[in-house]
Amino acid sequence: MMRSPSCSKQGISVPTLLLDTHVALWLVADPDRLGPFTEAALANIDNEVVVSVASVWEASIKAALGKLRAPVELWSEVERSGITLIPIERDDAIDAAALPPHHRDPFDRMLIAQAQRRSATLVTVDSWVRAYDVRTLTADT
Question: What CATH architecture does domain 16-138 belong to?
Answer without folding.
Answer: 3-Layer(aba) Sandwich (3.40)
